[in-house]
Amino acid sequence: MVNDRSGHKEHERYSQRLHQLEQPQPSENDVQREDALQQTLPKLTAKQMQGNRRRYFSVIIPFAVIVLIALYTISPLSKIKTVTVVGNHDLSSSEVQKITNIKPGRYINNVVKSPNAALKAGQKKNPQLKSLKVQRTGLRSVKLTISEYPVIGVINRNGKQQVLLSNGKYRGPNGSLTNFVTYSNFGNAPVHLKITAQEIGTLPAAIHHSISDASFAPTKLNPDRIRLLMNDGNTVYVTADQLGKKMKYYPQIVTKMQGNGVIDLQYGAYSYGYGDKNK
């Protein structure tokens, strides 16, 4: 009986050993590949997680930006609250805002990005507007820096008094029209009026303000002649496109005159008294 049990155990050990021998034994290369795989697998997992995070953020960040932009657009923070105007003289701050359409309530980004469009629109409504610069000075505030074409006189045009600007264009009266040059006899000479206005606009203020009336007075010898009546009682004749250049010498010429008279600047520079009919 004892021999049978020992034989049975021996048979089991033999069977187990035989089973082990029948199992394929891993080669050295297989062991190396398994070790490499065990080392690489954590790295691949980490890269996969990193890639997932990138894809997540690539979706969520643009979406968040779009949402923020949409919220900003519909919020009061995107609109102008305060407008400051500097550089204006004849045009009031409210008038500048009106003609340029840059005023509280407008989207501030649209205004800052398109100053040229605002300038052109303003000039169509009021040609006195010469230049416009738009600056953002705060979250909801802008500053408009403008320059104007100066007013150089008044003219009776189409039965109405209008203001004449240094660029030769007109605008409606705004306030008092006293102490301005009066332009006359230019009804059929719009080109000469524009030239005369531009030339007078280049004069120093002292000379400009000494002119009372400018009229178109052509002759056969000089079809471009302009007559200027001065506040001091003198009369000046000058060619339209030479007015700015030659009238700068007016103060020097007056100091050499004995009394009021005519100053002829058409083809030179000389003067004579009103009573001297030989001139």
Topology record:
Elements: H1 2-22, H2 28-74, E1 82-86, H3 93-100, H4 108-113, H5 115-125, E2 129-136, E3 141-148, E4 151-157, E5 160-165, E6 170-171, E7 181-184, H6 190-201, H7 205-208, E8 211-216, E9 225-230, E10 235-239, H8 243-246, H9 250-255, E11 261-264, E12 270-273
Parallel strand pairs: 1-3, 4-7, 7-8, 10-11
Antiparallel strand pairs: 2-3, 4-5, 5-6, 8-9, 9-10, 11-12
Report on the structure:
There is one protein chain. The protein is 43% helix and 23% strand. The model has no long low-confidence stretch (mean pLDDT 81). The relative contact order is 0.06. The chain has 9 helices and 12 strands. The chain is rod-shaped. The chain has helices at residues 2-22, 28-74, 93-100, 108-113, 115-125, 190-201, 205-208, 243-246, 250-255, and strands spanning 82-86, 129-136, 141-148, 151-157, 160-165, 170-171, 181-184, 211-216, 225-230, 235-239, 261-264, 270-273. The strands form 2 sheets. A 9-stranded mixed beta sheet has the order 6-5-4-7-8-9-10-11-12, covered by helices on one side. Strands 1-3-2 form a 3-stranded mixed beta sheet. The chain is of the alpha/beta class and 279 residues long.
Give descriptors for this structure.
single chain; 279 residues; alpha/beta; nine-stranded mixed sheet; three-stranded mixed sheet; 9 helices; rod-shaped
Major pleated sheet: 9 strands, mixed
The backbone outline, from C-alpha atoms, is rod-shaped
Coarse structural class: alpha/beta
Strand order of the largest sheet: 6-5-4-7-8-9-10-11-12
Beta-strand residue fraction: 15-25%
Helix content: 40-55%
Distinct helical segment count:
9
SSE pattern: HHEHHHEEEEEEHHEEEHHEE
Gap between N and C termini: 169 Å
Which regions have little confidence, pLDDT < 50, spanning 5+ residues? none
Our Rg estimate from Cα atoms comes to: 46 Å
Q: Strand tally, please?
A: 12
The overall pLDDT average reads 81
